[in-house]
Amino acid sequence: MMDRIFTRLFAGLLLLIPMGMMANPTLGRLDDLEGFTMTLEDFDANQGDQVCLDATVSGFMNILGMQFSINYDPAVLQFDNISNTNLTGLSPNSFGNPSPGNITMSWSDPAAVGVSVDDGTVLFEVCFTILGTTGTTVSFSETPTPSEVIDGTLTVIGFTGNDSAGTIDGN
After folding, report:
1. Helix or strand or coil: residue 90?
2. According to DSSP H, which parts of the chain are helical?
3. Burial readout 49-70 (b: 16 or more C-beta within 10 A, e: otherwise)
4. Are 171 and 133 in contact (CB under 8 A)?
């Protein structure tokens, strides 16, 4: 029940929006939606370096809200911060680090009309300090926050996450 609370809360909020906004014929055209994908770039770094990974999107069309988790190995990476947010209403405060190894994210369109961005747009950067000397991954997951994306028709659409592979060299 708790795993889809974002959908229920967001849908309830949208009931407060005048129906004229929801009747916009340019919003929610599922035939235009090829799927939502977020990609974290791969990296090659040395122990002690800071790396900031771009999070790029494709299929970001008429999106009202999204949530997901990013997981990493805290023995290899230390989470530093989120930077260079590039979406209205998205800020470092949209992210949480409830425990080492877990980053959560939740965003909704502040205008509640749906947002579209070009494929390849960088939405944010996630920055880490390299602690370990072994390769690692930074991956999207369903834990602790399940992945969910809602479009302008209040339809939950698929989320595809392309993980980051990291190569780490010792000093």
Report:
1. coil
2. 5-14, 19-22
3. eebbbbbbbbbbbbbbbbbbbb
4. no
For residue 35, what pLDDT band results from cuts at 50, 70 and 90? confident
* Interatomic CA distance for residues 112 and 14, integer angstroms: 7
pLDDT of residue 65 exceeding 50 = yes
Give SS3 for 22: helix
Query: pLDDT tens across 143-169, in order?
Result: 999 999 999 999 999 899 999 999 988
For the record, the structure tokens of 74 come out as 């805290």
Comparing 26-35, 65-74, 103-112, the range with the smallest average pLDDT is 26-35
| E-strand stretches of 24-120 | 36-40, 43-46, 50-58, 63-72, 77-83, 95-99, 102-108
Q: What is the C-alpha separation between 129 and 133, in angstroms, rounded?
A: 12
Q: What is the mean pLDDT of residues 68-76?
A: 97
